[in-house]
Known about the structure:
Blueprint: E1 2-6, H1 13-25, E2 29-33, E3 56-59, E4 62-65, H2 67-77, H3 86-101, H4 104-109, H5 125-145, H6 158-173, H7 180-190, H8 192-203, H9 213-216, H10 218-227
Amino acid sequence: xxxxxxxxxxxxxxxxxxxxxxxxxxxxxxxxxxxxxxxxxxxxxxxxxxxxxxxxxxxxxxxxxxxxxxxxxxxxxxxxxxxxxxxxxxxxxxxxxxxxxxxxxxxxxxxxxxxxxxxxxxxxxxxxxxxxxxxxxxxxxxxxxxxxxxxxxxxxxxxxxxxxxxxxxxxxxxxxxxxxxxxxxxxxxxxxxxxxxxxxxxxxxxxxxxxxxxxxxxxxxxxxxxxx
Length: 228
């Protein structure tokens, strides 16, 4: 049986991607929750993750770390995780890779915190650019694949696993989208796997201050409150 090490569900966006990939595979797995600490690699995680980050997947003595590697490892062993059509699969891999390597401003300025709802506008130009690019990807994906289902490539796939944390970020910070991207956001948040993670995240009691929007944006929120 696989074992997947993950961080706190309220905060850990990369753990969410790995966990959704694991659920999508359909394979049984043991879930091990570890506490997130600090903003860099954690030496406490080195016993099960060579990078010091989660998620980390164990398959017997074999260890796979980094979410993209975990997704590919599982996809090699379980059918249906990537789209069957070569062109659609190439598109799905491209948008996953773009998410994996990009959108640094979104990650920094809109930390994932499932339980929160905050308005921290005005957003920076760099953040607006990240949001607009994601909106473009989602609208393009739905235009291409709307006949196949409600998700980015029709049926729920690894592409949706990679963008699920963005859906939670948009929900937390009140991002409103145009076109089919708005409908897709609703579909993604309503998917049973995503809802299962959300329910577990909402049940957590741990507070990690460097991931809390009301801590990160304390001064901005206080200034806005004084103006109302």
